[in-house]
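Exercise 7.
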Amino acid sequence: MKTIAIVEDDVYIGDMVEKFLTSEGYAVLRAYSGTEALLLFEQKKPDLVLMDLMLPGASGEELLPKLKGTPVIVVSAKAGVEDIVSLLMDGAVDYITKPFDTRELLARITVALRKSEPQGENIRLSHREIVMDLEKHSVEAGGVTVRLTRTEYAILKILLRNAGQVVTKTVLLERISLETPDCVENSLKVHVSNLRRKLKEASGEEYIESVWGVGFTIS
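Solution. The predicted structure, written as tokens, is:
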């Protein structure tokens, strides 16, 4: 499960974003000032930071250089082109202006997290007897190569990254939309059923469970 830190002193906005992100399957950390954020990041490293600029204590501009290695999306009421360009040049991966649409924010988060994934020859996801090689775009179960469609591969990747967690149908559809836009809610169950069958045929094991009315989990 990916963790997103919200650095925002406006409690209403922070609560709204936290509720939305939690419903989308993300873990959330909160900080209400720049100083609190620095202390928080010394203890925990989030996968992405949503950061306001006008913060008590250290400002967002002061925080940004200290968050190298972690993607930061600036969320601010400042809309000047010079401000945006300056922040992007200083290390922010994206910028969204308040007020914002939560669907747009989710899309920007999805893209930023995908771009931040490490690239290399030995990038693998594994769970029990399933091994997914992201570089070779291959999947094995019980040592047997499993041939998956583009949609099945995208679904399995998300489930493996959230092993042991229930991934809702909404989250699955949202996160695979950039890789396989042909998958819709009516066809999702069929894709998951085919994926479950292929994994069982290869290894003899059941991996994917349906959580009625909610979504799916890999266990």
